[in-house]
Amino acid sequence: MAGIQTRSWTLDPADRIAELERENAKLQRINKVLMDRVERSMDFQGGAFSLFQTAIVLEQKIRERTLELERALHKLEDSNRDLARAKELADTMRTRLFEAIESVNEGFALFDSSDRLVLCNRKYLSYWPSVSGRIQAGIRFNDLVAMVAAAGAVSEPPPDVWLRERMEHRHDLKGVFLNRLSDGRWIQVNERRTRDGGIVGVYTDITVIKHEEERRRESEQAEKSALMTLNDQLQQAKSQADQANLSKTRFIAAASHDLLQPLNAARLFVSALADLEQPAANAELVDNIDLALASVEDLLSALLDISKLDAGAVTPEVSDFPLRGILAPLATEYAAVAAERGIDLKVVGSGAVVRSDMRLLRRIVQNFLSNALRYVQGGRVVVGCRRTGDGIRIEVWDNGPGIPRDKITEIFQEFRRLDTPVTKGRDRGMGLGLAIVDRVARMLGHPITVRSEPGRGSVFAVTVPRGTERRAVRPASVAARPMTNRLAGTSVLVLDNEPAVVAGMEALLRGWACDVVSATNGDEALALLSGMPQPPDLLIADYHLDDGALGVNEVARLRAACGRILPAVIVTANRTPELADEAKAAGCLVLNKPVKPAQLRAVMSGLVG
Fold first, then answer.
1. Which residue has the higher pLDDT, 22 or 296?
2. Going by C-beta distance under 8 Å and a sequence separation of 6 or more, which residues neighbour residue 46?
3. SS3 110
């Protein structure tokens, strides 16, 4: 019996009750058997003592069995109480579970291993209002979604497509599944399998998030449209700016020709007048006029250069070349100027190779040198080079009056000049040279440095990258000595569409004892050529003629008519490299307007010598 009790305590409440009922029935059977046995003994023996003895034994047995029965009943009562408490606890936990599920903001649905609905909350039912009354515990999931699709509770995709996709996701349970309901709400489904093979699903309303995403997309689209509109406006503005720059460039080219054309004629007339015998007073006037015209020429050239740089009309032609190709010609060119002003000019040669635009770099060094010669009075100017890391620094030293520290930045601005005792008259300059240097250096990417100490002098320098290839540079030409009779008798044909320029050129050339014939267009020049006993020794032609005609083309026609290559000089206000290349290809030399008589005379002497 003790073994049965022990075993009964290991069972759950229902099994324990059944075990106790079986023990009670067994005890009743034992009691009945004992009673029967006593009765049979009395029948056979019939003795009083024997009956008494049997009664005592029977009483003892009954008492034992009664006690066992009472203990079994107590255990049964305890088990019933435990079962009641367990049932009460289970009901409490189930109630709390339902309350917890109902309290969450998401929809909740639990399906068993057979995919039948076990329980769900009201939030879940609220997503399917048209069929919520038909959703009961025990309904299969496939029947539920089929019912939802048939009721049109989902707006997109179409019901049959949505039903197929929903069942596929239910089978795989990969990621989330989105439902767009017919009332406009968006529901996100997250499902996981339970340990017993069921499926628990959480249904979250993400309508606010979707609307926010839609507003963000609309905002992004609006911003994109605005950016595209702005980009179109910028492109249009850029196109207009490019067109304006192009117009400005064309204007600069036209202005170069139109402004320098009368100046060129004036310089020619003044030079012709200077070659004539004049009284002292008249000679002084002629010199003053020449100085004034030279100042106007310098100012116009500087202004046109700045305009071209600002308009982007100047394109650097970067190459590797030796510095002697710049320094040697500058030494020759400025030697006479330095000697005239009593300045000791020393240009230290260099075999270094640099990488830059040779023409523009020469312009920078030339401006440094001309400034030094302008501000030094009877002192010394030195031009030299230093190696610095990967570059070469070209320096121009002078022992002039120096520059105050607070004025160094100012001197690179337009029309800014230092007022010093030595800068008088023409030597004052126009205040544009260093402004041009600043623009050219920034375009080339060459750093400019200035060191100066008032009363002791200044050092202007530009640093240029080193080059790797050497290019042969034509040796610096030595200025020809003036030879008065060298051009005497030289036959010259002048072709220019401006009568004033033609008249000035004729006066200048005849002052040099040249035989001159002039024409204003190519046909007139051909007619003159046919009447000449022999071809002219030299052709001088303007580049821009009337009716779009070009001087290089007219020179080619005249050469063809003569049957030989006549020496030719093209005179133009256009200083672009393209024109220089075009003239070079045509076998012509180029002189820029306004023409300097000394330069023209040297060129003519070289061509006919």
1. 22
2. none
3. strand
Using alpha carbons, select from 468, 222, 199 the residue that is nearest to residue 355. Answer: 468
State how far the alpha carbon of 607 is from the alpha carbons of 82, 567, 569, 603, in Å. Answer: 133, 6, 9, 6
Specify the range with the lowest mean pLDDT, choosing from 61-75, 195-209, 556-570: 61-75
DSSP character at residue 411? G
SS3 category, 297: helix
Q: Which residue has the tokens 């012709």?
A: 272
Q: What is the pTM of this model?
A: 0.43
Phi, psi for residue 446 in degrees, rounded to 5: -105, 120
**Which is it for the CA torsion 92, 93, 96, 101, positive or negative?**
negative
Round to whole Å and give the CA distance between 192 and 176.
Answer: 10
Say whether pLDDT at 317 is over 70. Answer: yes
Of the listed ranges 298-312, 350-364, 373-387, the one predicted with least confidence: 298-312
Is pLDDT above 50 for 20? yes
Q: What is the distance of C-alpha 294 from the center of its chain? A: 47
In angstroms, the CA 446 to CA 279 distance is: 51
538-542 and 491-495 strand pairing? parallel
Report the alpha-carbon distance of residue 354 to residue 393 in Å, rounded. 10
| Nearest-angstrom CA–CA distance, 232 and 394 | 46
CB 198 within 8 A of CB 212: no
Q: How far apart are CA 165 and CA 154, in angstroms?
A: 12
Which pair of structure tokens corresponds to residue 103? 């309290």
Spatial CA neighbour of 501 closest among 445, 540, 535, 554: 540
3 state DSSP class of 523: helix
Q: Which of 121, 115, 116 has its CA nearest to residue 97?
A: 121
Cα→Cα distances 249→238, 306, 437, Å:
16, 12, 20
Instruction: Give residue 402's region: left, alpha or beta (phi > 0; psi -120 to 50).
Output: left
pLDDT band at 591 (very low <50, low <70, confident <90, very high): confident
The helix/strand count (H/E) of the chain reads as 16, 18
Distance CA 264, CA 301 (A): 12
Q: What is the mean pLDDT of residues 530-556?
A: 89
Is residue 136 within 8 Å of 120, Cβ to Cβ? Answer: no
Q: CA dist 290 to 155, 273, 423, 502, Å?
A: 93, 10, 19, 19
Specify the DSSP element, H or E, that contains 356: strand 353-357
Q: Which two tokens stand for residue 4?
A: 């049965």
Q: For 413, how many CA atoms within 13 A lie in the half-sphere containing its CB?
A: 7
Q: Alpha helix locations (H) across 275-323?
A: 280-311
Q: What's the CA gap between 348 and 370, in Å, rounded?
A: 17
From CA 460, how far away is CA 451, in angstroms rounded?
A: 7
Distance CA 81, CA 89 (A): 12
Whether the Cβ atoms of residue 459 and residue 396 lie closer than 8 Å to each other = yes
SS3 92: helix
Could you tell me if 569 and 588 are in contact, meaning their C-beta atoms sit under 8 angstroms apart?
yes
SS3 assignment, position 419: coil
What's the Cα-to-Cα distance from 296 to each of 288, 307, 430, 573, 595, rounded to whole Å? 12, 16, 10, 14, 13
